[in-house]
Write a structure and sequence with these properties.
By secondary structure, the protein is an alpha/beta fold. It contains eleven helices and eleven strands. The strands form two sheets. Strands 1, 2, 3, 4, 5, 8, 9, 10 and 11 form a nine-stranded mixed sheet that branches. The chain has a two-stranded antiparallel sheet with strand order 6-7.
């Protein structure tokens, strides 16, 4: 059985009132020294360089991506400080991004729209009902997909500046489907409007998502809370993509050639005593995310302590922040 190696208690992280903006400074000091900026010089990532491939994985979590967005804001600010460039963006320091649920929106906003992390966080904060899957059917949220149309306009998956992966669930085939920039570059049959992809990942999109040439049509869906059904944690999707994509990542021969930052959300958000269908779906998504976390960390073997990091909040009410690096127990 695997157990978390480090659990950090941050009493400065109150529930509500913008507290998610004050994520633990200790976590990011560890990130700086052991993950992104340790032995390697602080320089923009290069997918075809001989260095390790930097992977960013974001799952929205039951909180609709609020904590992941706050973490990205803090990370981008620190990158700007360390690089001395106020224009530095998170996307500059990663080679590939994967996102599910609200995390799919965040990944697309940062890597395709090149939106500052603060702006992406503001979109999530102002539209919490949309990203958490609790939008209504009338009034302001009558057309929740309008949020995504406003952000992405005519951008498609192919327009991402770097490899982008957004897994979803196709109701028509009863199987997962991954929207991938690599596939979109190869054929228009796999290129989709980004606003449709992100809306579908959050469970608020149109009934059908169609490729640009109309040849590929999906009845994409997401589980309650903006967590893609069966793909709550996209880290495994990202790692597999890198290791099997020799065209874009020719030097990635194994887990030791990757560094992975996996951002989760508040796993306990929206949970309660009443066992509704939506709460059960959230619980299932949280369990799946933890299982992927454990499987990926074990796959990294002896490199898990330096090459793989997952950050999530297990209980925001008690301010418990988990910094997961799994070790055999």
């Amino acid at each position: 059985m695997a157990t978390p190696a480090i659990a950090l208690l941050d009493q400065s992280l109150p529930f509500g009132g913008g507290g998610s903006d004050r994520l633990s400074k200790e976590i990011f000091s560890i990130l700086e020294s052991n993950f992104l900026f340790g032995a390697q010089a602080l320089e923009p990532a290069g997918a075809c360089s001989a260095g390790r491939v930097r992977v960013l994985s974001i799952d929205g979590g039951a909180d609709g991506g609020a904590l992941a967005a706050a973490a990205l804001v803090r990370l981008e600010r620190r990158l700007q400080e360390l690089s001395g460039s106020p224009e530095a963006r998170v996307a500059d320091y990663f080679d590939v991004a994967a996102g599910s649920g609200a995390g799919g929106f965040l990944a697309a906003a940062l890597f395709a729209r090149r939106m500052p992390a603060e702006a992406a966080r503001d979109v999530v904060a102002k539209n919490r009902k949309v990203f958490s899957g609790r939008h209504g059917r009338g009034g302001l949220f009558n057309r929740p997909e309008a949020v995504f149309k406003k952000v992405f306009g005519d951008l498609t998956v192919r327009d991402a500046a770097k490899p982008l992966l957004i897994p979803c669930y196709d109701m028509a085939t009863a199987a997962p489907f991954v929207f991938s920039r690599a596939d979109a570059v190869e054929a228009e049959a796999f290129d989709f409007p980004l606003w449709q992809v992100c809306a579908a990942a959050c469970g608020v999109g149109p009934a059908e998502v169609a490729s640009l040439d109309g040849r590929t049509r999906l009845r994409a869906a997401a589980a309650a809370g903006g967590t893609g059904a069966g793909v709550a944690n996209p880290t495994a999707v990202a790692v597999t993509h890198v290791l099997h994509n020799k065209r874009e990542f020719p030097f990635a021969a194994g887990a030791g050639d990757l560094v992975v930052l996996s951002l989760g959300g508040n796993a306990a958000a929206g949970s309660g005593a009443r066992a509704s269908s939506s709460s059960l779906l959230r619980i299932a998504g949280a369990c799946q995310a933890d299982m992927v976390d454990q499987a990926v960390s074990m796959a990294f073997g002896e490199n898990r302590a330096t090459n793989y990091i997952r950050i999530q909040v297990n209980n925001l009410l008690s301010c418990t922040v988990i910094f997961s690096q799994f070790t055999p127990g």
